[in-house]
Amino acid sequence: MNKDCTGCGTCVLKCPKHCITMKLTQEGFYYPIKDTNNCINCNLCEKVCHLNHSQPQFNLLPKLYAFVNNNPSHIKQSSSGGFFPNIASHIINEKGIVFATYMDEDFNIKFGICKNISDLPMFCGSKYVQSEIGATYAVVEKELKSFKKVLFVGTPCQVAGLKSYLLKEYDNLYTMDIICHGVPSLLFFKKYLQYIESKLGKIQKFKFRDKSKYGIQCVSSCSYVHKGNLHTKIHNDNTLNYYYFYMFGDSYRECCYNCKYTNPNRISDITIGDYWGIEKENIKIQTNKGVTAVIINTEKGEKLFNIVKEGNEIYPGNYNNLKLINTALTSQVKRKKTRDTIYQELTNSNFNYLINHRYKPSTLQYIKGKIKGICPPFLFYIIKKYT
Ligand SMILES: Cc1cc2nc3c(=O)[nH]c(=O)nc-3n(C[C@H](O)[C@H](O)[C@H](O)COP(=O)(O)OP(=O)(O)OC[C@H]3O[C@@H](n4cnc5c(N)ncnc54)[C@H](O)[C@@H]3O)c2cc1C
After folding, report:
1. What is the residue range of 199's domain?
2. Residue 334 lies in a domain
3. Among 9, 71, 144, 275, which is most exposed with the fewest C-beta within 10 angstroms?
4. What is the best residue among 79, 83, 271 to mutate for testing ligand 1's pocket, by most ligand atoms within 8 Å of CB?
């Protein structure tokens, strides 16, 4: 098994003998497995693998903008400033199609097709789990060949997989990647949900970084619907422990620790991420609902951005400042020594076990968490803004 494999599945779709299939590992990640009996050694799987391709060199002077969507419902549904629903609405209004990630009613994280504005909300917002791509690339190709405008949004490795699958440029394809620092498996997420349900009972919905109650002021928030009521958890609540294992590199797919896309030389027309540190820049933009850092990588991306930016709050940003704060733009997250043990324990046991044995915040983290836990959200926001 190639540890750098990102699980994009291009080799599976391209194999002329259909002898490669995706199999789930114990950790809950998909990896391609070849049936060597049927393999004709054509090597196409190697040729189409994006890991064997060099990266484009088009982003030597990246243009960065701070973006806040002026549509209140867009900004509420999104994790940052709502650039995704803005650009996606434009593509749909042009009779185009958007491919992006959503969470289904069984909490699976999948790629889907969005053709109607009314379906956009479920595609908005970050899901901190590896999304299942399945045969999406083949569907994208079909739509491109029928001359539809297509917007594909995913992690950089998912965009790289698509480009390798297509093997040629399409004028009607727009790609957008997210600044990404790593993805845990669906198994990891499901075990966490089981833990929440063991405490609270059955939940009907789950959303990472739900802003509807407290705004953006705490990124490690989540909300879920239980017995018809919306519960939003922030700060030091026990039900947020998923973030502890997520943020510090304990739970990622193996390839994320060696990701070749964590650098300013991006793979897509446009890159989006959180505009961390915006408060410290000399920009008059409302920051309390989230700001998207929009990085323009290609001329095509710039043309599209110039159309969709109209009517929203936009300011040129300082790329060097963002790079310093948003480390996923320049470097991979360090692999923690405990990473394998955590997955082993999770496979053999449950999330509760992890919390009892592996949840060890540093004294500083612990004190900060306690302070946040007792601090009202508005006060926390003010402290964050002025410190
Ligand atoms: C796993 C992950 C890690 C991230 N790490 C960082 C980081 O280190 N630094 C940073 O600045 N930003 C990071 N982000 C991006 C950030 O959380 C926001 O998604 C981004 O700022 C865009 O916000 P928005 O408000 O413009 O759009 P939103 O409406 O929030 O749109 C989010 C877009 O991301 C897509 N998406 C959501 N989850 C996934 C997924 N699991 N796989 C593929 N696509 C997905 C959605 O389909 C949608 O198109 C990460 C996002 C994810 C999903």
Report:
1. 186-249+349-386
2. no
3. 71
4. 79
Contacts of 96 (CB under 8 A, 6+ apart): 148, 149, 150, 151, 172
Centre of ligand 1 to C-alpha 79, Å, is 7
Q: How confident is the model at residue 387 (pLDDT cuts 50, 70, 90)?
A: very low
In this structure, are 237 and 270 located in the same domain? no
Confirm or reject: Cβ of 292 under 6 Å from ligand 1: yes
237 and 159 inside one domain: no
The region of weakest confidence among 25-29, 56-60, 84-88 is 56-60
Q: Which of 32-36, 323-327, 383-387 has the highest mean pLDDT?
A: 32-36
In angstroms, what is the span from residue 314 Cα to ligand 1's centroid? 19
Mean pLDDT of 18-46: 96
User: Does the structure show a pLDDT above 80 at 374?
Assistant: no
The response to whether residue 175 sits with its C-beta less than 6 Å from ligand 1 reads no
pLDDT tens digits for range 199-222 = 878 888 888 888 877 776 555 567
Whether 99 is covered by a domain: the verdict is yes
Same domain, 212 and 356: yes
For the CA of 158, the nearest atom of ligand 1: 43
Do 273 and 319 belong to one domain? yes
Does residue 58 belong to any structural domain of this protein? Answer: no
- Residues in contact with 61: Cβ distance below 8 Å, sequence separation at least 6, in sequence order: none
Kindly give the interhelix angle for 156-166 and 136-145, rounded to the nearest 10 degrees.
50
Ligand 1 atom showing the smallest separation from residue 123 Cα: 47
Tally of domains in the chain: 3
Checking if the pLDDT of 240 tops 80, the result is no
How many other CB atoms are found less than 10 A from the CB of residue 90?
18
Structure letter (DSSP) for residue 249:
T
Query: Residue whose CA is closest, atom 44 of ligand 1?
Result: 154
